[in-house]
Amino acid sequence: MAQTAEELVAKNLAARGGAAALDAIESVKFDGTVIFPGDFQLTYEEVRTRGGDVRVDMALQGLTLVQGWDGRTGWRINPFEGRKDAERMSDDEARSLADTGSIRGPLQRAASLGSTVTYLGREDFDGTNAYKLKVTEKDGDEFVYLLDPDTMLEVKMIETRRIRGAQQVFEYEFGDYEKVAGVYFPMSVESWAAGQGNNRQRTIIASRTANVPAPASLFALPASPAAAPKGN
């Protein structure tokens, strides 16, 4: 039976847990490990909100890399590059963090954002004839998804966007889905720059919690020490 993009998006939504379950999640927190090429392992903590805020903390030997998005501004603190204070991300980098850190994800946010979803047919993924969908956002960013035909969950995504004027392509593979408050999320994510499949970053989630405290201050750009009131 022929499938339409709209039908496949609806099946994916149902497979994840349904609209009501997704809308009931105000925030979600993931804790685990991120493994970089060379077997560098950092502790990993991520908090997302239904409003689209996201914060990621990755720590190693007392140093913590932080990335945040509060719906308006993206920022980072990267002590591994000798930076102790928060720095603003470029608009392109901030948009990437916002997209990958949303609870619904670009596929399920497509309708509300006015993105275009196109059905591209079927494609083999590890011996499975997966459904292929492309999401094109208004700003030109593209996300190509492969959906497992049995579970209707995402197994792969290819992200194409322009960052600092240059086109960049990243690939992601998703696995080990578990429910969080009735909604399926992947507990294993592998990612790499296109053409560098031997240089993968892997995120493994060990615990997940829904509806955790997530104050706005957690995601806001921290004030620089020079701007802080004296005595603080």
TrEMBL record:
It comes from Sphingomonas ursincola. Gene3D superfamilies: Lipoprotein localisation LolA/LolB/LppX. It comes from the Bacteria. Keywords: Lipoprotein. This is Outer membrane lipoprotein-sorting protein.
